[in-house]
Design brief:
Layout (H helix, E strand, L loop, with lengths): L1 H36 L8 H24 L11 H17 L3 H4 L5 H33 L5 H16 L9 H25 L2 H17 L12 H25 L10
Helix pairs in contact: 1-2, 1-5, 2-5, 3-8, 3-9, 5-6, 5-7, 5-8, 6-7, 7-8, 7-9
């Protein structure tokens, strides 16, 4: 019961942090729009404010972590089978999402630069927050529980999913449902990759590649081209959960590596 309350307190604290940065982001957006309205900022330079927004967010989060939270952000490379396999998953995932890169990725216009930053900024900020800080903290709280690792993975993935509801991408409820489910599946996969590799840079790469595919509609491998959106979503979720399960199973079976909590 005490751990449950602690988990809820962690969730509450980090929701407040995330909302604080969301308010900052909205404030900078409004400032940019005001400056453009009075002709002090060119429409072609609005991407600069987006860059500034993410720089402030990342630096601010790192400062808060260093002074208050003190979660150890890991950028290691574990020399074991689970880590090697996890790195292969990262490579395959990235190649899949960037498969159509030559067909439509340009940074010529202001909108394209904005979209690029919308891909890069969240990939860094959200991985620092949801995997580097929140997942780490949940692992510390639940490390003595039998299913502590699973609880930590699913709670961090749930928070990651909820964050995508702050500004929904779709008005259609069915599309919104699948957006949430895919975000949850990715949250599980990213947390698992971070756990088995202990390298936050790898989840940032995966997150960035996925965002690029979403914003620039790069497409996937041709074998999935004729499938419906529902079929692609179901296959994606199945693959995310299956890969996560297999990686955790392999990690558990390794000698001296059984459910080693991040440290």
């Amino acid at each position: 019961m005490k751990r449950a309350r602690t988990n809820l307190q962690v969730i509450k604290n980090y929701v407040i942090i995330f909302l604080s940065f969301a308010v900052l982001s909205i404030g900078l957006i409004l400032l940019a729009q005001y400056l453009m309205a009075i002709n002090l900022l060119s429409n072609n330079l609005s991407w600069v404010f987006i860059l500034l927004r993410y720089i402030i967010a990342v630096v601010g989060l790192l400062y808060i972590n260093r002074k208050i939270i003190k979660s150890k952000l890991l950028f290691k490379f574990q020399k074991d089978k689970a880590s090697y396999l996890g790195s292969m998953v990262v490579l395959i995932f990235t190649i899949y999402n960037l498969w159509g890169l030559n067909g439509g990725f340009y940074l010529n216009t202001n909108t394209q630069k904005e979209n690029f930053l919308f891909c890069l900024g969240p990939a860094i900020f959200e991985e620092l927050l949801f995997r580097g800080i929140i997942f780490n903290r949940l692992c510390e709280i639940n490390k003595t529980r039998k299913l502590g690792l699973y609880i930590s993975i699913f709670l961090s993935a749930f928070l990651f999913m909820i964050s995508h509801l702050l500004i929904p991408d779709y008005s259609n409820l069915i599309d919104l449902f699948w957006q949430c489910m895919i975000a949850f599946g990715l949250g599980v996969l990213f947390a698992t990759i971070y756990f088995v590799t202990q390298n936050l840079a790898l989840t940032m790469i995966m997150h960035f590649a996925n965002n690029l595919n979403s914003y620039f509609f790069l497409g996937g491998v041709p074998i999935l081209a004729n499938l419906s959106t529902l079929e692609v979503n179901l296959i994606s979720l199945t693959v995310y959960f299956l890969i996560s399960f297999l990686l955790l199973l392999l990690k558990k079976k390794q000698k001296n590596q059984s459910w080693k909590i991040l440290s």
